[in-house]
Amino acid sequence: MSSPQLTNYLRTNRNRLALWQEETAFLLGFKGEDKGGKVCRDEKFTREPSLRSALAYEAIYGKPIRELFAGLYQQIEQEVAERAKLLTYRKAGNQNPKRHQALASLVSRALHNPSQI
């Protein structure tokens, strides 16, 4: 991933709980000598945490993944909305009402969050 411009709040939440990186790594179940380094790389977004690690961060910090990884979530939400818009155009003549509503909802989220476009 290595996208340092994406925002995450792992370090902020770790500091809020006064945990050290090594302690957080232990809670995450990391093994090896460089356990704290893995947490550091997650915090700096030089390493993409696995889904298992992301869910563990949620359990440790008591915050939803989408809040802990806010920048990545916003990027993914925008990408999904753009694909939904394309799908809407592709399926314009053959539209199931439920499908149309679901796609329209995804597209409207992007329109209501113009900073993410």
Describe the structure.
This protein is mainly alpha-helical. It folds into two domains: 59 residues, Orthogonal Bundle (434 Repressor (Amino-terminal Domain)); 43 residues. It starts with 9 loop residues before the first helix and ends in a 5-residue tail after the last helix.
What's the helix and strand layout?
Layout: H1 10-16, H2 21-28, H3 35-43, H4 51-61, H5 65-68, H6 70-90, H7 97-112
Helix pairs in contact: 2-3, 6-7
Beta-strand portion reads: under 5%
What spatial form do the alpha-carbon principal axes imply? elongated
Mean pLDDT: 86
Structural domain tally: 2
Report the CATH C-level class of the largest domain.
Mainly Alpha
| Number of DSSP E strands | 0
Radius of gyration, whole Å: 18 Å
Instruction: List low-confidence stretches.
Output: none
Summarize the structure.
This protein is mainly alpha-helical and about 120 residues long.
Provide tags for this entry:
0% strand, 434 Repressor (Amino-terminal Domain), 117 residues, 2 domains
